[in-house]
Automatic annotation (TrEMBL):
Coiled-coil residue windows: none
Record carries keyword Flavoprotein: no
Keywords recorded for this protein, A-Z: Membrane, Transmembrane, Transmembrane helix
Keyword hit for Transmembrane: yes
Transmembrane segments: 12-34, 40-62, 83-100, 106-125, 132-149, 155-172, 184-202
Protein name: PAP2 superfamily protein
Length: 203
């Protein structure tokens, strides 16, 4: 089996557009006993609409207009509009959908994602291309690690698996010639930084 031929698959599985839903599903998987089923379903629907369905719809609209040309690879100029839309949708999510009073962990996860999107938008304006894939996977890894520490649950194997996935995603981006090493490192910092800084607010 040629691993290099499989690497691009990780760019799709861990595309940043899916990360919010992955984090939400994992959160409710371990905390479902604390919530009514109706709360879980409503939150999942809201997250799916604002972080997956609407961005996908906007992507196809932007593609038809020639604003973007690829789902996994985009130039600096093609990134501005999708990232701006993502920032707005995350703001709407934390402002009107995910409440700090009821799902604080998710609230800070999305707040960290919002800060990351604002930072990467600023970097795009400054003509720097940080890896969105590494922002997504590193923020998800930190969130899972934070949940493990907060709930005192043994997620060591899962955290280790996420770290391996980070390596595979980074290798995928390099293999596809989508990013350089500094851009991947910048993505990890932008993704993990806000999550780690906000972790103290869970306690």
């Amino acid at each position: 089996m040629d691993l290099k031929k499989i690497l691009p698959v990780f760019s799709y599985i861990f595309h940043p557009i899916f990360v919010s839903l992955y984090g939400t599903l994992f959160f409710f998987l371990i905390t479902n006993s604390f919530f009514y089923n109706s709360q879980i379903i409503v939150t999942l629907i809201q997250v799916a609409i604002l972080t997956l369905l609407l961005p996908l719809s906007m992507y196809f609209l932007f593609r038809s207009l020639g604003v973007v040309s690829s789902f996994t690879e985009a130039s600096i100029s093609e990134r501005k509009m999708p990232i701006a839309v993502q920032s707005i949708l995350l703001f709407v999510l934390i402002k009107f959908s995910v409440s700090r009073d009821t799902v604080a962990e998710l609230y800070f996860f999305f707040l960290g994602g919002f800060f990351s999107s604002v930072i990467v938008l600023a970097s795009v304006i400054l003509k720097y291309k940080a890896s969105l894939h590494m922002i997504g996977i590193s923020s998800l890894t930190c969130f899972i690690f934070g949940l493990s520490m907060y709930y005192q649950m043994p997620f060591i194997n899962l955290v280790a698996f996420c770290i391996v996935c980070m390596g595979l995603v980074a290798s995928s981006r390099l293999y596809m010639k989508a990013h350089t090493y500094p851009e991947l490192i910048a993505g990890v910092i932008i993704g993990a930084g806000p999550q780690l800084l906000l972790y103290s607010y869970w306690l």
